[in-house]
Amino acid sequence: MVSPELVVVMGGMTGPDERAIRGTHTRLLRTNGFISHEQAGSLQVEYLTAKGHRTLGYAYSVASAVELVARERHGGAARAASAFALPDLSVEKIDPRQPTTVARAVDRWTAPGSSVTAVCAHNDEIALMILECLYERGLRPGVDLSVIGVDDIPAARINLTTVRVDVDAWSRAVADGALSILLGNERPTLEGEYLEVVARSSA
């Protein structure tokens, strides 16, 4: 049976796993919660505002698997919009399993009379679906409607502006924290700035 000195918990633990560790010499380094989803939403709005956009859309994911993350990312974007004295975000609910929800949102944001010039998407998957809808309508991302995502998945690296985790900085912080615990030093804090905007042609 494996009995490690340290377990690094990246996304939470099941009850049975945690109970199995309790009472042993194994120590835990919990990393979840130190990368702020609210900040991701805020960075999207800050970036678009700096580009001169004033009326923003928001593509809100209704996928049950990301319910908490969706709420936090949207909350960060809404608070940033308020801080910049922008109009309320034009929120459209998106089900990634239903492409028609994306098409309907794009049609609303780009309809005659709409003042929306840029959209914050919950994640890159939804952002890329929005880009595809724009192409189908003969519209140009970054010109007719700017779009920014979150996560920097491989498919985003062609032309999608997005918010990503600075993996190098985060990895160093986790490694330093693990070493500190193993050496018996004071329990480390992992708080820091780990998110950054990657600018590409979509916004």
UniProtKB/TrEMBL annotation:
UniProt KW keywords: DNA-binding, Transcription, Transcription regulation
InterPro entries xrefs: LacI/GalR-like_sensor, Peripla_BP_I
Pfam families, sorted: Peripla_BP_3
Annotated Gene3D superfamilies: 3.40.50.2300
Domain Transcriptional regulator LacI/GalR-like sensor positions: 45-202
Protein name: Substrate-binding domain-containing protein
